[in-house]
Amino acid sequence: MVPKVMIAAGGTGGHVFPALACAQEFIGKGWEVCFVGTGRELELRTLARLGPYRVLTVRPIKGRGFGRKARAFLALIPGIIRFLGLIREMRLHMILGFGIYVSVAVMVAGAFLRIPRAIHEQNVQPGLANRLSAPFAQRIFVSFEETLGYFPRGRAELTGNPVRASLLEEARREARREDAFYLLVLGGSQGATILNRVVVESIGDLRGLGVHLMHQTGYGDYDWVRESYRGTGIDAEVFPFDEHIGRFYGRAHLVLCRSGALTLAELAAVGRASLLVPYPHAADGHQRKNAEVFSKHGASKLIPQEDFRPEVFLDTLRELISREDIRRDMEQKALSLGKPKAAGLIVERCMELLEGCTGAR
């Protein structure tokens, strides 16, 4: 019988693309994959192409403390009941969750049916979904060494955050020009208006510095940002979103971006210096905590959003353009944090878990 894994992932690219990387590894080893997610377009364009895809809609849970956890868990009871039947029907061998609320229902149902179970945490500080899932998971994979302390010793392992093999290949194929300076502005799959606005307000100075821009705006800001570049004389490639972002990483000398876990994993995997502007309203402040790890290791410069103004951005940029030695050191520090084989390691550990559970029956 061909082994089958259910992967629970969805929402933003930070959850979807690591799941996609692991799914491709499973398929390469002869597994069948199926997915449960939230029904968003990104999931339909990526995950749903690789195997059966089911949607479970869960209302976001607000508040703090034990009450928040209790409400979150109660809201998942219908999903747990649904997945008890679905897991039996699909005859699953493995469940792997990527930190969305849906994955909690799948984990609990899998525990009732004694299906091998694992979760992956992308951020330094675990989110609510993985905190709820952890008691039901037999293996817990984390992206940062600092995260190990949040989970029971013996079940948690540092694997890194999975990055798609195709992204690494795209970056390798691009020859970076050393007679020019390319800045990649990257707001993540949803864009970042503050990054867009500060860069647009700095266009005159950027042109004077000879900067070539590659600017991912997000869909909401694309039209006005594109229009802002018209007639300025600056070399800029403007696009709303590109799933093949590896080619832009390959050309970049510096990346201006948020500090979502996936973005940081990609920066580390390709070895790029970065200016990080954490999203201040991320759940549990996880983007700030992610950025602090990279800044502490010398891989990035951290600029809090409240301080991110054109003059601050341009002063930092001028320093990094003129000081190639600093930039090169940041690149090496970023590479030292990378775990480009994370997806393969996670799949290997899942296979070991299945073998151990099968042998114990």
Structure characterization notes:
The protein is an alpha/beta fold. It folds into 2 domains: 4-163 and 340-360, 3-Layer(aba) Sandwich (Rossmann fold); 166-337, Glycogen Phosphorylase B (Rossmann fold). It is built from 16 helices and 13 strands. The strands form 2 sheets. It has a 7-stranded parallel β-sheet, sandwiched between helices. A 6-stranded parallel β-sheet has the order 10-9-8-11-12-13. Helix 4 (77-90) crosses helix 5 and helix 12 (261-270) crosses helix 15. The two termini are 17 Å apart. The model has no long low-confidence stretch (mean pLDDT 92).
Within the CATH hierarchy, at the fold level, what is the topology of the largest domain? Rossmann fold
Strand sequence of the main sheet, in spatial order?
A: 3-2-1-4-5-6-7
Question: Helix segment count?
Answer: 16
What is the CATH homologous superfamily assignment of the largest domain? Glycogen Phosphorylase B
Poorly predicted tracts of residues:
none
| Number of domain units | 2
Return the CATH class of the largest domain.
Alpha Beta
**How many β-strand runs?**
13
Assembly status: single chain
The CATH architecture term of the largest domain is 3-Layer(aba) Sandwich
Care to give the gist of this entry?
This protein is α/β, with parallel strands linked by helices and 361 residues long. The chain is built from 16 helices and 13 strands.
Keywords summarizing the entry:
single chain; alpha/beta; 13 strands; six-stranded parallel beta sheet; Rossmann fold; 16 helices; seven-stranded parallel beta sheet
